[in-house]
Amino acid sequence: xxxxxxPIYHTLTTILKSLPLSTxxxxxxxxxxxxxxxxxxxxxxDVARALSPLxxxxxxxxxLQRFLANPRVEREALQRAWAAWVLTQFAPSRPRLLVDETKxxxxxxxxxxGLWVDGGCIPLAWRCYHAKAYPKEGQVKLICGLVxxxxxxxxxxxxxxxxxxxxxxxPDLIKASHDLNIRVFFRVQGTVKFxxxxxxxxxxxxxxKEGEHWQGCGEVFKKCGWLKIYxxxxxxxxxxxxxxxxxxxxxxxxxxxxxxxxECSFRDLKxxxxxxxxxxxxxxxxxxxxLLVLAIAYTLVMSLGMRxxxxxxxxxxxxxxxxxxxxxxKSFVHPTILPLLPxxxxxxxxxxxx
Length: 354
Fold this sequence. Notes:
Elements: H1 8-17, H2 23-39, H3 44-50, H4 57-69, H5 75-90, E1 96-104, E2 108-117, E3 120-130, H6 138-153, E4 160-163, H7 165-168, H8 171-179, E5 183-187, E6 193-195, E7 201-203, E8 213-220, E9 227-234, E10 243-247, H9 260-269, H10 284-307, H11 321-332, H12 349-353
Parallel strand pairs: 1-4, 4-5
Antiparallel strand pairs: 1-2, 2-3, 5-10, 6-7, 6-8, 8-9, 9-10
């Protein structure tokens, strides 16, 4: 099956129609995304090499640089439009949002709110900042701002928000999520005290022993005046620590495992896929524009992985949907984007795209 019979180019064109970009910027975004997919890397030299049939290596490299530096590629408006498209295509009636921070070595930190899908996590809204220059508004307002971007994209839905204990052990975030009408499902530190209806207090980690599961309604976060919450503690056999979970309403504890899809998606964008960790794009606004391209490329590749039959033997049985899609592309695509185009480009293509 030739690669151009796969829906990558068509779907990418549909996505770009929904984004508030000029025709010229949509063209560059299309080429940038296809270059990342074909080159298997977001390093500008690799992307430019994938685009080299459409112009000289230097001209393609400069085009990519201009895109990343262009202030008209505006983060919030694009993320809103991107989130609206993703939610329309992938979200169930009750979407689950995952929030976590990832780092690019010591250069950048990125807070990402993504949509959980079966087999992955699609970035919807994000913010990049230097590791030693955390946004002045603080973590809670930063996360709420990203969540509000998603809500603005589709306010009619009802959302859940999942977070690990580094973010979830925050009564302020729980309160702020409640104000946004977002249901929370957070892991918290085991030392968080739980108070039952009789006033008895105990640390959540002391509720169970290995292999046990406990759940109940009560209050947590004494220093903040106690918050009414549904709590449960799950300690699987062979694990060092239990999951100490708090949620707005009763939720199956095992569902918290969906949060790990976000960590897998970070790995897919980095060492297992597009080499984001070695992109050398360290300016926060440039990195935010690059992540838009990566989010689109990730979604296209993962969607292809959904169509691929999972191997029954060997190492590939453990591949993520993204990795399956990427391996499928590698089997058809050589280092340039030509096989991803809908037809062979005309000889004057260089003049058209520049």
